[in-house]
Amino acid sequence: MSFKRVVITGMGALTPVGNDVPTFWSNLVAGVSGAAPITRFDAEKFRTRFACEVKGLDVTNYIPRQEARKMDPFTQYAVIAADEAMKDAGFDADTLDLDKAGVIWGSGIGGLKTFEEEVMNYSENGRTPRFNPFFIPKMIVDSASGVLSIRYGFRGPNFITVSACASATNALIDAFNYIKLGLMNVCISGGSEAAVTIAGVGGFNALKALSERNDSPETASRPYDKDRDGFVLGEGGAAIILEELEHAKARGAKIYAEMIGAGMSSDAYHITAPHPEGLGAFIVMKNAVENAGIKPEDIDYINTHGTSTPIGDPQEIKAIEKFFGEHAYDLNISSTKSMTGHLLGGAGAIEAAACIMAIKDQVVPPTINHFTDDPEINPRLKLTFNKAEKRRVNVALSNTFGFGGHNASVVFKKYED
Amino acid sequence: MSAIAERVKQIIVEKLGVEESEVTPEANFQNDLGADSLDTVELIMEFEKEFNLSIPDDQAENIGTVGQAVAYLEENVK
């Protein structure tokens, strides 16, 4: 059996820097920060009082109110992003084989706000066990893929991948492999997260994972800067339509790029800290490049995990230098989390979208907020500081690493027949 | 229309996303107003919250229409 080729034929995004793909991408290239004071709840007593929230969103413009209230925000984000991607892909409803169309979504946490509200309601009402009947179906993390399959009638493979901040990348990898194996023709993949909540911010604060630069939210996410002090929590998501190449060609679909490979690995080291020498990061990039059947020198751009934490950023860089050798200084590297914040389980989706757009437009989005060089980071590396860079982007790699030591990477290439 | 009936109507309009004109006394939550069994459970919970009472399950089972809800509440709300 020969493997099928997999291409990208539609995208949708709902992010802290734009509520659709064109706005998201133009703001990334322009170096716009999505960080601002938290509006989702009263964060006055929290150590971190800012985040990268989705802005100006009226969910009822996309989903009727009575449907929307049965969805946690992470599912609403999934629906909004997927609607844009489905429209972009332009399937013919009369001819699409729905039995061979799947949904494989990623989310790290799921319905955190729903869980919080129900439990707080319980404790505030004399602990009377009156829970909303929609509590469980709203909260469980797989509800996003379930809702999407119902919305579009996709009856193929349907599930959620959970690997913390690598979740959406794992979703893309599973979608890629199932199409490659001929198990489906089309898949809505990607991921979403909505963790800018009391428990989300409080929990990550307790881990000392978040930046506490409350006097300057927009400069707080500063990957590779000497004074970085933690990540900025983001929310939103992106949907990416993966399609079998011949299926896409037969219907004359617009093709953004080809997905050519994927890698997975585990640090097997610590539940939250990354391996100090970037061992898992090295292995995942090696696996991805080998799976793609290319040479390390073929990679033009790496969208790094680069969350802006003191210990996370250098280990990934060490792994890049070790794996790519001299080529590490020829390719461009950037962390778009400097603008979007960290979408946790949704990160891999918006960053895959950034890689795909970088290939389409031949431009590398910047790592903004670079003020002071970090002596731990080799200055020979092209980290695309502060300004987007026009360059050849034939092949792009996206890295994501999650608590638990999960690492997942995907490789996209300019489509050629 | 009683004050209770008016508040019941608002809750139903809000939760089920139906038009006020559809919320007639005879309207059945599931057959006429597009609710499923979970929506109905949620409606009962909303009535309990709004009117600050507790509706036992065996009583809740008998509330299938707008009129039945209003009648129950008019009788039991103090």
UniProtKB/TrEMBL annotation, chain A:
Q: Which residues form the Ketosynthase family 3 (KS3) domain?
A: 3-414
Keywords from the UniProt entry: Acyltransferase, Fatty acid biosynthesis, Fatty acid metabolism, Lipid biosynthesis, Lipid metabolism, Transferase
EC annotation from Swiss-Prot or TrEMBL:
2.3.1.179
One GO BP annotation is: fatty acid biosynthetic process
- Which molecular-function annotations from GO does this UniProt entry contain? 3-oxoacyl-[acyl-carrier-protein] synthase activity
Q: In which pathway does it act?
A: Lipid metabolism; fatty acid biosynthesis
PROSITE patterns associated with the record: KS3_1, KS3_2
- Active site annotation, chain numbering: C165
Taken from the UniProt entry, a GO cellular component term is: cytosol
Please list the reactions this protein catalyses.
Answer: (9Z)-hexadecenoyl-[ACP] + malonyl-[ACP] + H(+) = 3-oxo-(11Z)-octadecenoyl-[ACP] + holo-[ACP] + CO2; a fatty acyl-[ACP] + malonyl-[ACP] + H(+) = a 3-oxoacyl-[ACP] + holo-[ACP] + CO2
- Per the record, the domain of life is Bacteria
Q: Does the keyword Lipid biosynthesis apply?
A: yes
Alphabetized Pfam families for the sequence: ketoacyl-synt (PF00109), Ketoacyl-synt_C (PF02801)
Q: Which PANTHER family match?
A: 3-OXOACYL-[ACYL-CARRIER-PROTEIN] SYNTHASE, MITOCHONDRIAL, POLYKETIDE SYNTHASE-RELATED
| Family per similarity comment | Belongs to the thiolase-like superfamily. Beta-ketoacyl-ACP synthases family.
Q: What does this protein do?
A: Involved in the type II fatty acid elongation cycle. Catalyzes the elongation of a wide range of acyl-ACP by the addition of two carbons from malonyl-ACP to an acyl acceptor. Can efficiently catalyze the conversion of palmitoleoyl-ACP (cis-hexadec-9-enoyl-ACP) to cis-vaccenoyl-ACP (cis-octadec-11-enoyl-ACP), an essential step in the thermal regulation of fatty acid composition.
Name assigned to this protein: 3-oxoacyl-[acyl-carrier-protein] synthase 2
UniProtKB/TrEMBL annotation, chain B:
Q: How is it modified after translation?
A: 4'-phosphopantetheine is transferred from CoA to a specific serine of apo-ACP by acpS. 4'-phosphopantetheine is transferred from CoA to a specific serine of apo-ACP by AcpS. This modification is essential for activity because fatty acids are bound in thioester linkage to the sulfhydryl of the prosthetic group.
Coiled coil ranges (UniProt) are: none
Q: Which residues cross the membrane?
A: none
An example Pfam family from this entry, by short name, is PP-binding
O-(pantetheine 4'-phosphoryl)serine is carried by which residues? S37
Q: Name one GO cellular component term.
A: membrane
State its location(s): Cytoplasm
- State the source organism's domain of life: Bacteria
Swiss-Prot/TrEMBL keywords: Cytoplasm, Fatty acid biosynthesis, Fatty acid metabolism, Lipid biosynthesis, Lipid metabolism, Phosphopantetheine, Phosphoprotein
Query: Which BP terms from GO are recorded?
Result: lipid A biosynthetic process
Domain Carrier: from-to ranges: 2-77
> Under which pathway is this protein filed?
Lipid metabolism; fatty acid biosynthesis
Q: Quote the SUPFAM superfamilies the UniProt record gives.
A: ACP-like
A GO molecular function term, named singly, is: acyl carrier activity
According to its UniProt entry, the function of this protein is described as: Carrier of the growing fatty acid chain in fatty acid biosynthesis.
What NCBIfam families does the entry give?
acyl_carrier, PRK00982.1-2, PRK00982.1-3, PRK00982.1-4, PRK00982.1-5
Q: Which family does it belong to?
A: Belongs to the acyl carrier protein (ACP) family.
PANTHER family attached to this UniProt entry: ACYL CARRIER PROTEIN, CARRIER DOMAIN-CONTAINING PROTEIN
Classification via HAMAP family: Acyl_carrier
Q: What is this protein called in UniProt?
A: Acyl carrier protein
What organism is listed for this UniProt entry? Dyadobacter jiangsuensis
What lineage does UniProt assign to this protein's organism? Bacteria, Pseudomonadati, Bacteroidota, Cytophagia, Cytophagales
Gene name of this polypeptide: acpP
